[in-house]
Amino acid sequence: MHIGIDLGGTNIDTGLVSEEGVISSRKSMPTRAERGSAEVIKDLLRLIEMLLESNSIQSIGVGVPGTVIRDQGIVNFACNINFHNVRLVHELNQQFDYPVYLDNDANCAALGEAVCGAAENYDTSLMVTIGTGIGGGIVINKRIYRGFNGAAGEIGHMVIETNGLDCACGRKGCFEKYASTSALVWEAKRKLKNQADSFLREMTSDNIDKINGEMIFSAAKQGDKFSLSLIDRYTDYFAEGLANLINIFEPEIIVIGGAVSRQGEYLINPLKEKVHQKVYSKTLPKTNIVAAVLGSDSGIIGASQLWRG
Amino acid sequence: MHIGIDLGGTNIDTGLVSEEGVISSRKSMPTRAERGSAEVIKDLLRLIEMLLESNSIQSIGVGVPGTVIRDQGIVNFACNINFHNVRLVHELNQQFDYPVYLDNDANCAALGEAVCGAAENYDTSLMVTIGTGIGGGIVINKRIYRGFNGAAGEIGHMVIETNGLDCACGRKGCFEKYASTSALVWEAKRKLKNQADSFLREMTSDNIDKINGEMIFSAAKQGDKFSLSLIDRYTDYFAEGLANLINIFEPEIIVIGGAVSRQGEYLINPLKEKVHQKVYSKTLPKTNIVAAVLGSDSGIIGASQLWRG
Fold it and tell me: B250 in contact with A at a CB cutoff of 8 Å?
């Protein structure tokens, strides 16, 4: 058995996970990151302690929402949990004599889906997590590909529109400014400003700040033309980025994660069609595109599999 | 010793190459692809025969300018040499009882630079070959990364300008429409149409169809403002694409090949500076960017190293 830890901005979720990725026991606590890393780590140690009771484990894996220096076991920068240069592996090893593995949460999710999720039967996979931004995780032969400095997979910061929308990374026109859920919502609000009558205005009782991605999909499914055209534009950009990634990397499968993936075939089918029209190698076997299956468990499960390398 | 073959549109270049990548003997013939693949293969067999005289070899490697089905030893499609579904490995094995390895020329060049060229001391490298288009070759731990269908590395067909310039691949705004040598020349001609006086017009005796990449760099080095601004714009786009590739893939080094790489530091230094301003991970170790060193030998040398996998 392995312990998997999803150290997130809201909760610390931990679980006892088999080699095959099945969670047999869970323990969680709110993170309350404002307390500082020392207090958070105390809670983390307590949770591990609880999971260890009468269980023999082989490893502890931790996923964090930020950058890590893996070979030194350090959380370099993770603003959502308020960790800056924290020697997390060292802290855990002070109390527990198990191998501890650390990685960022996007890589953990990708590994989880690759080992025991949607990409289980594929050698090379790319996980694309859609949310406020777009995260990526590259898995080659069931191992995370991290690049020489551990920072590979920042696919959200691939420019697809030179001199396009400003991105927090300092560039203009990044993929995530067009294909994240936030981008979809932002575009909806922008266009609604000049539109008095609309289904989305009705849905939010005229408070368009309440619009979220799910509402737009729901309105589209009910035939709302405005939402349908928003989603059509959204999947155009989404497909542009995915076709780029396929041309560069040719993974056997792309797994789409994040809340938007719950739209399932309603999102995936048109997206797949657009991508396959755009890819360079039209006569060769095609990259499969599917929705993630592990949902919010992907963090725990993925972290528990970090011992694989 | 290994035999390396660069089966190009103009010449068939072959060489006897050591395990370390040193060419000890060469044989070449013009390809004359219009004769059809059977005749070209006859010449190829003759060249190998000549290299074999009194030499014991371990393998034969062949690079071709097109797509291959590697595990079947088939050249799938290579229009420059007029090969369509040619069972090249089978043809060579009919006459020679050595292991024969086949790959496309961009991958061979990348492997050559990785094994005994500019990326010799690096584990992960990306070779970017600039010419009419932009070719790519990804090398991870001294092995070519090919993707599940053998078609990875088509970095020239990464869209960096959604709805931008038309590309032959069917998309709009591909990297190679902005950062290939052809793109630089195309932009020069386009702008010169509305400009009667110019240094480049003088250089070509007012025949702007004669303009090539080298001339533009030469004019810029002599202080021609028009050429300087062309190159400034060119390296902006070039850097945009390279920063994307670094964010996705984080290779330890990027090797720039093709004729433009002969500009050396005059091209590389400003390019590097722009790239490093754009990459996402500004505090982590940076990807090195250098010019290729094997020049036109990279095809033979790279092909001779295909036995490495």
Answer: yes
